[in-house]
Amino acid sequence: MPDTLMQPQQSDNAVEVKGLTKIYSGKRSRPDTLALDKVSFHVGWGEFVALLGENGAGKTTAIKVLCTLVLPDDGEARVAGYDVVKHADTVRSKIGWMHGETGGRALYWRLNAWDNLRFFAYLQNIPRDEASKRIKALITYFDLGEYASKLVKDYSTGMKVRLMLARTFLSNPEVLLLDEPTIGLDTSAAFETRRLLKLVNEELARPILFTSHNMFEVERLCKRLILIHKGRVIAEGPPSRLTSELSKGDTVELKVASTPDALEVLVQEGLVRELLKTEFDGEASTVIAAVRDLRQAFSDIPSFLVQHGFRLISIKIAEPSLEEAFIRLTRE
Amino acid sequence: MIPLKAEEILATIKSPYRKSRSWSRQAWGVFWANSKVLFSYKTWVATELMGMPVSVAIYFFTGMLVSKPSLAQAGYGTDYLSFALIGVSMTNFVWVTIVRLSHIIQHEVEDGTLEVVLSSPTRMSAYLVGQSFRGLLLGGIFFVASMLVGITFFDASLRTDAFSLLSAAALILLTLFANLGIGVLAAAVILVYKRGDPVVFIVSALTEFLSGVVYPLKLLEGFPVLLQISLVLPYTYGLDGVRHLLLKGATPQTSVVVLDSLVLLLYVALLYPAAFYAFRVSFDRIRREGTTASY
Question: Domains of chain B: which residue ranges?
Fold first, then answer.
């Protein structure tokens, strides 16, 4: 039976991943790499979800499995209800994929912007007139009009990324899989891209799974995030829940009239577990510190600081930012 | 940025259109884009074209060293230049049909553009045929130009009546299709190994030297192993048939041309399914290895 005639399995989710495992075989004497270790997550229709993790955590592999470029070794992945292995052709017609990390390499550098998009329109079977209308609009939106007839090889990295974004939106895909879509963009372009992503998600109800190292971006855009570390999902939920859960009442914010280096003594003396974040304004240091026991911290730290000649300006319970939460979770 | 509002973009991209998976549209798109890429290298195209008269001239002067009786004995008449001209011009086709496709695939893997194609709803066969046709266009241009240079400036004596030319064109196309199968096979190998394709090396080298490009196969009678190898190459039959059509005035009904055509058809029937299967196997392998791009 032709792939396109296969009915999707009933699914409430745009993306569904269950027990996904991927091992890259090591060549010659190199060991195998476990890129994904029984990973499970989902993205609902209309959801905007971030897949977070450090470099090498398995984010790109997960995205590439979803866009059928990598075959999993075990587990199951579905996009728009279609299995990415069994119904790969159908999945490809549903997705819009972009890999920003390539810095614009995945474009035809000997073609101009217009022809790059025209080529993709051919592959997507978009009728010629419709394609022209869309290409014109996208080139204008992504501010490539002035350079549309120049070869891509002469573009800056930001322009190439903008062109890749334009290509992703060209066919108005049902599910967007965006791997670092704003990497290399200047502030203004990143802002407009986020705006468009938000609008596509909210107005067109397009589900978006995206990866980013920019926590500001993640907090602004995503209702839910999935944190992946060494091929495993280690946390999942709304950003606010993640940060509040992480605080667990064991994080304090100290303001001390001292340099940050001098406050390392708090770790050495076992009064705090870890200094998560330090800032120095020239006169005082503001420190976010993880402690073992909050009650004890509030009695021990002030007395220790006073005894050792530090001037404590303030101490309060702190809730970590998403960035701090990310760092803590991946370190733990 | 932002001469257009995000809302306006949204209105444009959400307008519905009839989605149909058109094989020919995709193949044309691949051919169109890659031809544009090719012709963007203007200096390369110019130097290739300039090199053509030089290559024809070399065979014109080499022909003075070849004795006419020995050529006549092989059954291709007495004009060495015309004999070699057909061989050399068609060899360019071999290059483009066998080698070009795997070179393109290699570049696409390195540039990351193959991933974009593979993650789109493009049919594999449309992609491969579109890519191959770019090579055919290039080979076709060089073939016609070489012939014109030979006939116009070096007085090559070829049959130029419409029937002979059309018959030759049909046989050349058949030869190319047979070789394209090998090209797809070579592309399947390069997909996995990325560089140093043994299929390309072996087949193109053997084809160039053993299929009778610049000397008649009769000369190989003293080297039975080499002669056997030459008889395995599809190009040998294409070259033989085209020479009979353009040098000796044979027709498509002439027994030798019929035999050459049948052998080529057999190659097409055998090689195509095998080559496309091999490409599919290679594609699955690079998906398992996660090497659809190597940037």
Answer: 22-289
Count the domains in chain A: 2
Which chain B residue's Cα is nearest to A200?
B10
ipTM surpasses cut 0.90: no
pTM: 0.81
**Residue A242 lies inside a defined structural domain of this protein:** no
CATH label of the domain that carries residue A260: 3.30.70.250
- Shortest CA gap B103–chain A (Å): 15
What is chain B's pLDDT, residue by residue, as a tens digit (295 residues)? 555 677 788 888 888 877 666 899 999 999 999 889 988 888 887 887 777 777 777 777 776 666 777 777 777 777 888 888 888 888 777 777 778 888 888 889 888 899 999 999 999 989 998 988 877 887 888 888 888 888 888 888 888 889 999 999 999 989 988 888 888 888 898 888 877 667 777 877 888 788 888 888 888 888 899 999 999 989 899 999 999 999 888 999 999 999 999 999 999 999 989 999 999 999 999 999 988 887 6
Compare CB distances from B6 to A22, A108, A196 and report the shortest one's residue. Answer: A196
Interface test with B, best of A123, A151, A204 (most B CBs within 10 A): A123
Q: In 10 A of CB B43, how many CB atoms? A: 7
Rounded Cα–Cα distance for residues A120 and A168 (Å): 9
Q: Does the beta-carbon distance from A140 to B4 stay under 8 Å?
A: yes
Whether A79 and A176 map to the same domain: the answer is: yes
Name every chain B residue with its beta carbon within 8 A of the beta carbon of A25: 289
Domain that holds residue A31: 3-237
In total, the C-beta contacts within 8 angstroms joining chain A to chain B are 157
| E strands in chain A | 13-24, 33-44, 48-52, 74-79, 82-83, 95-99, 175-179, 208-211, 224-229, 232-237, 251-256, 274-280, 285-290, 312-317
The span from the CA of A273 to the CA of A266, in Å, is: 8
Tell me: do A49 and A176 sit in the same domain. Answer: yes
The A residues from 184 to 213 touching B (CB cutoff 8 Å) are 188-189, 192, 195-196, 199-200, 203-204
Instruction: Give chain B positions within 8 Å (CB) of A34.
Output: none
Residue type at A95 in one-letter notation: I
CATH number of domain containing A188: 3.40.50.300
Does one domain contain both A13 and A44?
A: yes
Point out the domain boundary residue: A204, A237, A270.
Answer: A237
Are A106 and B112 a contacting pair at CB < 8 A? yes
Going from the C-alpha of A313 to that of each of A253, A257, A275, A300, A302, the distances in angstroms are 11, 7, 17, 15, 10
User: Does one domain contain both A264 and A223?
Assistant: no
Q: Are residues A179 and A326 in the same domain?
A: no
Place of tokens 């009009």: A145
